[in-house]
Design brief:
mainly alpha
Length: about 400
């Protein structure tokens, strides 16, 4: 890829990650302002995460199809502006209804990752696509370091301060894209017949699943992503309840996870891909993820002896595995899609991934509120193990 577009995509992925992870350390404390009961707080946090994912589920394939017809650039800019508006409203707050409104506004324009993945596919060849996905994954990991750290720091100025900063960052990135980002989709590769049927998200979901190899890879990825979404919601609540951590301490946990993404996807992944290929690297990532979830499960059973070091050890192993797996599986999926359908199918794929962001927070928050941490992370470990079995069963020629 040319340096300027790649730099914009890396910065955009970084800012998406920062904007999303800024709220993690402060979200339990924001919700606590409006919901006094601890069990209900867990449920509300789950629903806030699920609402965003549900709207992304419908918007991702539609915006992916729009990018096939009108280009990747306008969709990316629209997504950034929607992110800014949603964070602004969420930061203003004042009631639980306003918090949900902020998530709604951000969710309806949150389909930019499909267009971003399609931009990468437009601008890379088969040989270096996996490495570029790895660079983007490492950049997301950097955002996961900066975001929670910045969120914990800004919390000293009020729990809404991280939201306002995230909105400002998104606006600046949208301005950069408007003035400097070139369009990646050539006119001859665009879908020239765009009708009302293209606004039906179910149409694009069928397109994403019509190819057997894509369908197998997507379902495998969804099973492995569920434990990760469980962790994002449950870990901040669990550390607050068990270790009595505040926003600053919780932010450190996400910083460690982001650092693992940088090391795993930015340094280790390119070398592993060159030697073993995407499929074997993805299998290894699942194994590490299972080890991390099992570690968390073991820790959850030792509530009488909570230790921060055990939390960190489990998160490190799982985060390394998740990073290796995600970039490899994205490369495999992209290589299975025709060039003129990248936006539509990638949008459908990202939309299906959003289902995990719906099911994970709802299931995780509900299970933690009613059954505690051990069953919650036990479920995550089981799902990751099933994903390993499914991917190992896919013939090498299909992956």
């Amino acid at each position: 890829m040319k340096r300027s577009p790649l730099l914009f995509l890396l910065v955009t992925a970084f800012l998406f990650s920062v904007g999303m992870s800024l709220v993690f350390p402060v979200l339990p404390f924001i919700v606590a302002q409006y919901v006094p009961d601890a069990r209900q707080q867990t449920t509300v946090i789950g629903w806030l995460a699920a609402l965003f994912a549900l709207l992304s589920f419908f918007s991702s394939p539609v915006l992916g199809a729009v990018s096939d017809a009108y280009g990747r650039r306008p969709v990316l800019i629209l997504t950034l502006l929607g992110t800014a508006l949603g964070n602004l409203v969420f930061g203003i707050g004042g009631s639980l209804a306003v918090l949900f409104l902020g998530r709604f506004l951000e969710g309806v324009t949150s389909g930019g990752m499909g267009a971003l993945m399609a931009y990468v596919a437009d601008s890379t060849n088969d040989e270096n696509r996996g490495a570029v996905f790895g660079q983007i994954g490492a950049t997301v990991g950097a955002g996961m370091i900066v975001g929670p750290a910045l969120g914990g720091l800004l919390a000293h100025f009020g729990y809404s301060a991280p939201m306002f900063v995230a909105a400002g960052i998104a606006v600046l990135n949208a301005l950069w894209g408007y003035f400097f980002l070139p369009e990646s989709l050539k006119p001859e590769n665009r879908q020239h017949e765009f009708t009302a049927a293209h606004l039906n998200p179910l149409t694009h979901l069928r397109s994403a699943l019509i190819k057997p190899q894509v369908r197998q890879l997507v379902f495998t990825a969804m099973l492995f992503m569920l434990p990760f979404t469980l962790m994002q919601i449950v870990l901040p609540i669990m550390t607050r309840d068990t270790l009595h951590w505040g926003a600053a301490e919780i932010s450190t946990l996400f910083m460690v996870s982001g650092l693992c993404d940088i090391v795993g996807q930015g340094v280790v992944l390119p070398r592993l891909l060159a030697r073993f290929g995407e499929r074997r690297v993805a299998l290894g990532g699942i194994v590490m993820g299972v080890m991390g979830v099992v570690g968390l499960l073991a820790l959850a059973g030792l509530v009488a002896w909570p230790h921060a070091a055990l939390f960190y050890a489990a998160v490190i192993v799982f985060a390394l595995g998740e990073g290796l797996f995600t970039s490899s599986i994205n490369a495999l999926i992209s290589l299975s899609i025709p060039e003129d359908e990248q936006g539509r199918v990638q949008g459908g794929v990202q939309s299906l991934f959003e289902l995990t962001q719906i099911a994970g927070p709802l299931a995780g928050s509900g299970m933690y509120a009613h059954f505690g941490s051990a069953p919650t992370f036990g479920l995550g470990a089981g799902l990751a193990a099933v994903a390993y079995g499914l991917l190992s069963a896919v013939p090498a020629r299909k992956a």
